[in-house]
Specification:
The chain is an alpha/beta fold. The chain contains seven helices and five strands.
Length: 181
């Protein structure tokens, strides 16, 4: 049975790598934010606005525990998921946890072009955005560091890099592809 939780800051490549890895392993992929949005017919920002951060984080924890019971699955968590309640301990108990470690400069480059899709980043100058990422990453690092595995997520820019990253992750986790004996 495969149950893998990908953690890391926004823009780390959790969804990109998770989708590719799940496809290679022939198992479903779940992006926890999308899972929540589909279940509640609201976007994450809407749920934040309606419930406040504490209310959203409780909902997120509940959905993590639900999805974390599925077998043969790759789950991409929200960037803040590991930082609340017992979420990291729960994920470590349920499956293999992987922290996608990406340098601030790479996160900045990726997030700088995606500020329209991420309300928390809107309106920030380049300097403010870089400082925001660095500070948030530093605050979250103790939680991310609890993952069983640390994986360099900085090489996910092309199909070749993604394919190489899938192979490196498979090797790190010691998982054989489904069509290999």
């Amino acid at each position: 049975m495969i149950r893998i939780f990908l953690t890391g800051y926004m823009g780390a490549g959790k969804t990109t790598l998770g989708k590719a890895f799940a496809r290679e392993m022939k198992v479903p992929f779940i992006d926890l934010d999308w899972y929540i949005e589909e279940r509640f017919h609201r976007t994450v920002p809407q749920l934040f606005a309606e419930r406040g951060e504490d209310g959203f984080r409780r909902l997120e924890q509940s959905m993590l525990h639900e999805a974390g019971e599925f077998e043969d699955v790759v789950i991409s968590t929200g960037g803040g998921t590991p930082c609340f309640f017992d979420n990291m301990d729960y994920m470590n108990a349920q499956g293999q946890t992987v922290f996608l470690d990406v340098p601030v400069d790479v996160l900045f480059r990726r997030l700088r072009v995606a500020t329209a899709q991420r309300p928390i980043l809107q309106g920030k100058s380049d300097e403010e955005l870089r400082a925001f990422i660095a500070q948030a990453l530093q605050q979250r690092m103790p939680h991310y560091a609890k993952a069983r595995y640390r994986f360099d997520g900085s090489r996910l820019e092309s199909r070749a890099q993604i394919a190489d990253s899938v192979e490196r992750l498979r090797g790190l986790l010691g998982i054989t592809p489904p069509d290999c004996p």
